[in-house]
Specification:
This protein is of the alpha+beta class. Strands 9, 12, 14, 15, 16, 18, 20 and 21 form an eight-stranded antiparallel β-sheet that branches. A four-stranded antiparallel β-sheet has the order 3-2-6-7, with no helix packed on it. Helix content is 16%, strand content 37%. Helix 1 (3-18) runs antiparallel to helix 2 (20-30). It has helices at 3-18, 20-30, 128-145; strands at residues 43-49, 57-59, 62-63, 65-69, 72-78, 86-92, 101-107, 114-117, 165-168, 173-176, 179-180, 187-190, 196-198, 203-211, 215-223, 226-233, 235-236, 243-244, 249-252, 263-270, 273-275. It is built from three helices and 21 strands. Strand 6 (86-92) and strand 7 form a beta hairpin.
């Protein structure tokens, strides 16, 4: 890794320790992807220093994406939206030239928008049939989301899959009739039905399907635990096993599943944590 890039990463890490938002802005200015933002739903960039081989890093039981070279390695840790602010850490496995380590970092608090809605009671609770379908789909998707493959991604800056207005932000929490639902785990982009959806990054299609909540859905594996999902598609133009380059068409915008109108829901997952897609794009 060139010395100027190492300095950039070290500067970002130092800023992150002081103020996560300042680090994110510094990374934007210097072209570091994803931008570091150590908050629930964000990404922590942790310097691992030099090593002859790529270190093996885990957060809990989950493997972590490690990028760089023998001069400087960096761990990219996806932080779940459910993570509590405070101290956190990753573990680095021992190698021939270095002992096992535990590297700590601080998760700063972040308050996401909350939306309270009153709707007809029948639209909140699922029927027994739909609940059973949802449980089957959730078990299947848990296996999809556990994917960790090689090769690792060659680049991490993504392109927005479809042009349009962002109609719902990542992390938005909706409360229906006083019942809280899970925070919004992606970025919604309003676009007309049939608008082409393009791959945000090179990757392999690991799942497609028509799901109860998500409708027409495509999952892409980019390597190293970095995955993206697009859903509510009106059509799917790829199949499991296809390898795509960034910008390849994978489907079209729709309003399938539980959607109130045509739009694209786009999620980014890192070490099984849904993180803010905005950290990966030039926004």
């Amino acid at each position: 890794m060139p010395s100027d890039q190492r300095r950039t990463l070290l500067r970002s890490a130092a800023l992150l320790a002081l103020a996560p938002w300042a680090a994110a802005q510094a990374a934007t200015d210097t072209g570091v992807w994803p931008r570091p933002l150590a908050v629930p739903g964000g990404v922590a960039r942790l310097s691992l220093g030099p090593a002859t081989a790529r270190p093996a890093v885990r957060t809990g039981d989950l493997p972590v994406l490690v990028i760089g070279d023998p001069i400087e390695w960096t761990a990219l840790v996806g932080i779940p939206l459910s993570a509590a602010p405070g101290e956190a850490f990753v573990t680095v496995a021992a190698t021939a030239d270095r002992p096992a380590q535990r590297i700590g970092y601080r998760i700063a608090p972040k308050k996401y928008v909350e939306q309270r809605l009153q709707v007809a009671p029948g639209t909140v609770d699922l029927s027994p049939e739909n609940q059973a379908r949802y449980e089957r789909e959730r078990a299947h998707l848990a296996q999809v989301m556990a994917t960790f493959s090689e090769p690792l991604p060659e680049r991490l800056q993504m392109r927005v899959p479809v042009p349009g207005r962002r109609s719902s932000s990542f992390g938005l929490r909706r409360v229906f009739n006083g019942q809280a639902r899970s925070p919004h785990s992606g970025m919604d982009i309003a676009a007309p039905t049939g608008t082409p959806i393009l791959a945000p990054l090179a990757g392999r299609v690991v799942d497609t399907g028509d799901y109860f909540f998500n409708g027409g859905t495509v999952w892409l594996d980019h390597g190293g635990g970095l995955m993206t999902m697009v859903c509510h598609l009106s059509r799917i133009d790829v199949q499991t096993g296809d390898r795509l380059q960034a910008g390849d068409r994978l489907g079209a915008v729709g309003a399938t599943g539980r959607a109130t109108g045509p739009h694209l829901h786009w999620s980014v997952m890192l070490n099984s944590a849904m993180v803010d897609p905005a950290l990966f794009i030039d926004a």
